[in-house]
Specification:
Glutathione-S-Trfase_C_sf, Glutathione_S-Trfase_N, Glutathione S-transferase Yfyf (Class Pi), Chain A, domain 2, 238 residues, 10 helices, 2 domains, four-stranded mixed β-sheet, alpha+beta, Glutaredoxin
Length: 238
């Protein structure tokens, strides 16, 4: 199907927007990238989504919102390189682990990153470590062992990326950002997760994607919020 009139409304530092930039790059779909001022959302933008959040994809004048829904739409419409597993059970698992990222991992990363209460630092760090270890063991290890997939990609068909790879990759990048702010690093107990990050980071859809912010750019943009000089609004990141 034609990509005519494909517009992506987003924010430069939003990981949920990065997800859509990754799949569009992977499928080599051209689009117009429109950065939204989240402090002063235009009337035009607010007419596209009832939530007032990014990302929003407009295709042939029809808006789609919520990153997982946009991702599924792009995969369904632009059918080259299907990123959903052929097996119905595995497709369900791909969606299930995307839900885990949205509701468990992503909020935990940001609560720890932007925490201003020293008394909560240890607790928040431990919660993040627990979330990552659960993903490592219950997601990557168990699913790989059960389905005989020994590659580094997450729940794909063989040695190819799949939906969860691109859903998680922007947040694994934010863990690199945490290294600068908090000294946080993934330990050896997260070997599969680190391998998943490394193999995805070497793919063209990430390393040659000029629409994505660099780690240095994210660090610069997040610094005022980490220092408590500015407050990150929830709808900027979630």
């Amino acid at each position: 199907m034609s990509s005519s009139s494909l517009k992506l409304y987003g924010s430069r530092l939003c990981p949920f927007v990065d997800r859509i930039k990754l799949i569009l790059a992977f499928k080599q779909v051209p689009y117009e990238n429109i950065n939204v001022n989240l402090n002063m959302k235009s009337k035009e933008f607010l007419q596209l989504t009832p939530y007032g959040k990014v990302p929003v994809l407009v295709h042939n004048q029809k808006p789609i919102y919520e990153s997982a829904a946009i991702y599924q739409y792009v995969n369904d419409v632009f059918t080259n390189h299907d990123l959903m597993h052929k097996d119905p059970y595995m497709r369900a698992m791909q969606r299930s682990w995307t839900y885990y990222c949205n509701t468990r991992l992503a909020p935990t990363i940001y609560k720890y990153m932007f925490n201003q209460d020293p008394s909560k630092e240890v607790e928040l760090k431990q919660k993040l470590e627990d979330r990552l270890l659960f993903l490592e063991n219950e997601g990557l290890k168990k699913m790989q062992d059960t389905n005989g997939n020994k590659g580094s990609f997450f729940l794909g068909d063989g040695n190819e990326p799949s939906m969860p790879d691109m859903m998680y990759l922007p947040f694994l990048v934010r863990l690199d950002v945490l290294k600068t702010f908090k000294g946080f690093e993934m330990g050896k107990e997260l070997s599969r997760l680190k391998s998943m990050y490394q193999v995805n980071a070497q793919q063209d859809y990430y390393k040659n994607n000029k629409e994505l912010p660099s780690i240095e750019e994210i660090i610069k943009g997040y610094t005022p919020y980490v220092k408590g000089e500015l407050t990150m609004k929830e709808d900027w990141i979630l």
